[in-house]
Amino acid sequence: MTLSKVLAPGWDAVVKNWRPFVVIQAATLLMVTAFYTLPVAQRACAVLARWKAEGGVWFAAFAVAGAAVLLPEIARRVTKVPRDKPLTVADMCFQGGYFAVLGIAIDAFYRLLGQIIGLNPTPEVVVIKVATDMIGFSGFLSMPLAVVLFAWRDADFNFHEAGRLLSGGGFWERYLPLIVTCWAFWLPVMACLYCLPVNLQFVFAVLTEAAWCLLLVTAASRVPEVDKTIA
Asked: What is the value of pTM for the model shown?
């Protein structure tokens, strides 16, 4: 199988969903602009930041799990988009646990970048954080891990069957379409989010994560390969 064929599902997802991509990205830009220009937006953000600070690790866990698991499932039922397989209790627990841990990891990652690279969102700091996020965190950590874990899910939590799904190029058939879609959507979004103070980055990321996961439900109905890993 050629590289172009492997990348095709991800590219198709971008082409067929570029309008909602742009709408969500533009909305993120408007939120950041509002934060820096409107006092009422700053007051609202202060409330969100306080909720995040008071909630701590539990807020990070439940916020991402809710945005990534509950909202898409509600959307599926409203829009009648079919799943590739029935949702089981084990699957729901798996996804909830996965995204809860991911939420904690993302929150810690944002704070770590602030400590290492800097808290002042200068253009240089933003560029370095975006590159570190998209290439390092997404490219080499979160997306590969998601591919492996969700292949295990697709194999009904059978390690041997999961290995079969990922062998013979199966890993790349899942990873490459996903990373193409991820970068097309998240690169502009993260450029906006890293312009915010660190205590607001996670809160805004959760809002965007909810939009991203809702979009995946729609994308999956038109480009099923993208749904093999997340949704």
From this structure: 0.84
